[in-house]
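Lab channel / #folding
Pinned by the channel admin:
"Please post every new chain as: sequence first, then the structure tokens as a reply. Keep commentary short and put observations after the output so the thread stays searchable."

First post following the new format, from NK:
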Amino acid sequence: MSFVVARRGFLAGLSLAALASSAALAHGPSRQKVTETIEIAAPAEKIWAIVGDFQDLSWLPPVAKTEATGDNTPDKATRHITLKNGGEIDELLTKYDAKDFTLAYRIEKVDVKILPVNNYSSTITVKPQGDKSVVEWKGAFYRGYPNNDPPPELSDEAGIKAVSDLYKAGLASLKAKVEGK
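Reply from TO:
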């Protein structure tokens, strides 16, 4: 083997090592998850009559108006949400199981200034517990800024806080509505 061939092999090896180490150092966002639950003093059917209607989000405090199509048919039902602050969100129903009191949806369009997340999907489940029920709202998403070094308002922490705050406010409002308080 000649010196030139050996040197090329050595340089190629160095190039691959440098490429591999830079790929290992690159870090994009990781999928974040939030789960919130609340116990409500009502049978699951009563709660499901409210949260199981994908067309109606009047129980969610920041919502001013919901325009929807497709009833509760997965992959056809959509809703356009207008928030009280003027923001807008488009969502698609991806799963609907009235027997198990579960629905899932994903955001199709949202301005990250309104909700600092991307690639958001969520599930709401009502779990019967005798004469009470537990409502679980869980979501998964990426932060609002897809690259490294996000600004604070589009960070993982900002996304987690925004979604957690929304879920907590929504579940508290649902509880008050169902329990008549």
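NK: Strands lie at 32-40, 63-69, 78-83, 88-97, 102-110, 117-129, 132-143.
TO: also worth noting, The first strand starts at residue 32 and ends at 40.
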